[in-house]
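Box 3.1 A note on notation
Throughout this textbook, protein chains are presented in two layers. The first layer is the amino acid sequence; the second is a token string describing backbone geometry. Keep the layers aligned when reading.
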Amino acid sequence: MKKTICKIEYDTETATLVKKITVGTFGDENGYEETLYLTPSEHYFLYLNGGPASLYPTEDIKRLSKAKAEAWLEDHT
């Protein structure tokens, strides 16, 4: 997925995957995934995707500051 936020392009195809968490199992309507990426220009973002009854019923990208990315990593280790 690709999304431009504040003139910065966030692209899951060109960014480096840092960490991925999965909640639920495949096909779970409440299940979702959060994937942390780092762009080549060193901007962090979360790729969010899930089932229709989940926190993320449609795929999206959310940019994160370095501090928030580090906090997300701490919360998910």
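The helical segments are 66-75. The mean pLDDT is 96.
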